[in-house]
Structure prediction request, 284 residues.
Amino acid sequence: MFKSNQSSLLERIATALERMAPAKAVLPPWHAASAFVWQADGVLQPVASVNALPLDLLLGIDHQKQSLLHNTLAFAAGKPANNALLWGARGTGKSSLVKAVQQHVFVQHQRPVVLVDIHREDIGTLPQLLSIIRKTHTRVIIFCDDLSFSKGDSSYKSLKAVLEGGVEGRPDNAVFYATSNRRHLLSREMIENEQSTAIMPGEAVEENVSLSDRFGLWLGFHHLDQATYLSIVEKYAAHVGVMLPAEQLHAEALEWSATRGARSGRVAWQFITDLQSKTLVDQH
Prediction:
């Protein structure tokens, strides 16, 4: 009787430990999609349809477009490529460019390079994701949108090690693309705080700036001038089939940007979306 109870107890303990243990990462069917979302429980969720604009619709960022496309094509072809940091003002096309370039390379150039989207709060699980990528020959762009670190957040140190400084480093079949509003990813308050408490303040600043140095390709994005903004509006209007006289389109687009306090690709797209919805309502 005692042995039976002991055996039952051991089985319950083993079952409880299995529930507590992290789920084993499952290798995804890389051919199932062109993009995946990384989940912290070790699952790569295929994306049925990637929300990406055609590459030729992205105007006013020609240098950034060509640089990122060249880097991505080199990576897809198995050549050396850099991690990329796209930084700058909100709504200027940073994340749109990453998705557009990856889809362009995947579809137009028929290169088997897939995009894996990782959320900012899951950066600590990057080593687990990289261990999965190492087990495949598929070339993977790991993408983190709106990456930045605030006071008290030390996960940036793990990111530095993963990008290049760790014992294993990143695998040859993976690159890391990130977008951020900050060029150096860390808040000024965080840098100044570490500088004030460090024995050697200059070394503290170097430590923080070195995170951005792990990205070999830096691409800056800025607000648009009026002419470029209006060109983007015209291109978007033609793309969705909105037909308005140029003078009316320009006047309404400028009024819309004035209420938003900025001229950017995002503002232009929001304007065209609003205009398109009004046109559909008027038709009914």
The longest strand covers residues 174-180. Strands lie at 35-39, 43-46, 84-88, 113-117, 139-144, 174-180, 217-221. Confidence is low (pLDDT under 50) at residues 194-205.
